[in-house]
Amino acid sequence: MAQVKICGLRQADHIAAAADAGARYVGLVFFPKSPRAVSAPEAAALAQHVPMGIARVGLFVDPDDSLLDRTLGQVPLDMIQLHGSESPDRVAAVKALTGLPVIKAVGVADPDDLPVLTNYGLVADMLLVDAKPPREAELPGGNGLSFDWRLLAGRRWLRPWMLAGGLTAQNVAEAIRLTGAPVVDVSSGVETEPGQKDENLIRAFVAAANR
Ligand SMILES: O=C(O)c1ccccc1N[C@@H]1O[C@H](COP(=O)(O)O)[C@@H](O)[C@H]1O
């Protein structure tokens, strides 16, 4: 059984479905290139629909201070997810600037990618282990690609962590079994097309992760 984050929500009814199914984190994407991107006013409206006890995570890709300031001035967020090439120093700076816990995403393709997680574990509040995006990918995440989960078997870091990358209701139980992930994060695996979440897929994913 793992906790669940549903990322890239853009509709109040999908937030309600995620909450009702038992998700513990919901993600709002502030990256204009993403098909899941929301504006700050849209996110502020959506945030009102998130029940107490569920963390509102703002996803950013290499944000500058002004984007963070402007967004946080309008949207009540509980955590920041950094999904770009932010250095450990930048992670620390974002924590200091926003006063919020930071989740740092790291792309993994082979064993050489794992030591980086130890470095980020010194500064981030939570680690997010995702598939490494292919060179030609437009997005650094949210591509529905998974990686060899056996790379993570028996691994432990200084911080809590979540697993992401190509997870679906069909494969999430196996991913949890192989990695021991305490939290799983999904975006495209609960969509019918890029950016279009589906309530039944959300419910099926949370049920499968909680089984
Ligand atoms: O979801 C997006 O559009 C996105 C854009 C830019 C960076 C990250 C993004 N999503 C994150 O990517 C992973 C994996 O998503 P998927 O389930 O494979 O589609 C997840 O952490 C999302 O939060």
UniProtKB/TrEMBL annotation:
It comes from the Bacteria. Coiled coil: none annotated. SUPFAM superfamilies: Ribulose-phoshate binding barrel. Its EC number is 5.3.1.24. Pathway: Amino-acid biosynthesis; L-tryptophan biosynthesis; L-tryptophan from chorismate: step 3/5. GO terms for molecular function: phosphoribosylanthranilate isomerase activity. Keywords: Amino-acid biosynthesis, Aromatic amino acid biosynthesis, Isomerase, Tryptophan biosynthesis. CDD domains: PRAI. GO terms for biological process: L-tryptophan biosynthetic process. Pfam families: PRAI. Residues 4-207 form the N-(5'phosphoribosyl) anthranilate isomerase (PRAI) domain. It catalyses: N-(5-phospho-beta-D-ribosyl)anthranilate = 1-(2-carboxyphenylamino)-1-deoxy-D-ribulose 5-phosphate. Belongs to the TrpF family. This is N-(5'-phosphoribosyl)anthranilate isomerase. It comes from Paracoccus subflavus. The gene is trpF.
